[in-house]
Hints:
Blueprint: H1 2-29, H2 40-52, E1 56-67, E2 70-82, E3 86-93, E4 96-103, E5 106-110, E6 117-121, H3 124-127, H4 132-135, E7 149-151, E8 163-167, H5 174-177, E9 180-189, E10 196-205, E11 211-219, E12 233-234
Parallel strand pairs: 6-12
Antiparallel strand pairs: 1-2, 1-11, 2-3, 3-4, 4-5, 5-6, 7-8, 8-9, 9-10, 10-11
Amino acid sequence: MEWLIFSRRRILVFIAVFLLSGLLYFLIAGVVHLPSSIEPQDLLQQAVTRTKAVKSYSYVIETRLVTRKGTRNLSDLKGSRVLPDGVSVKGKIFNAPVEIVQLKGVTYVKDHYSAKWLALNGDRLGDTGVFITELDPLILLDFKGTPLVVWGKKERSEKKGLLVLECTPQVANRFLTAQFVDFKYRMYVEPKQHYITRIKVEARSKDSETKLFIDLSLDNFDKPLKIEEPATKFTP
């Protein structure tokens, strides 16, 4: 009987150690988000300042509208930006293929039928507000004042180790605010250098129940990216 009681105790200890080890694994793996020692408000200010100060970066941006009738994809682009004025993006806008290059005050738009590039002097697309977020995605970090930010919960499908911040800022982009309100941000910050590596935005239309969703991923900060003028081009 004593041997049986002793064995039961050993089994209970083993189970407790097993459960504790499992909990530690999930914590380390990022299923449960552990905040950094830095305050979220300070982290946001540092991360926004540091990210907007980079001279080059690559990005992937997806935007879509969700209505009663379903989902409408607005853009799905991969691009790179080299300050002060170099931009190159390729992908789809309104489900149509598009390729755009901006360099030295000229905007080049590829004609996919002739494979030639239409050269437009100046930033006509940006001046009209068309594709302004797709061509200059860090404009999403322009706020009116500093928003109140809190720690966000980590999700299983997201990268481990990132610090998650959530806020409802007053967005400064006048083209977005002309149509949408109630912006909700979810930002993912790299814990060592405090770069913002992902921004997820949700907003509501002013005139309907339509919702806007933006998903921006950022990478290759200050890497030697190169943007070149297209070879075959024509001017209208």
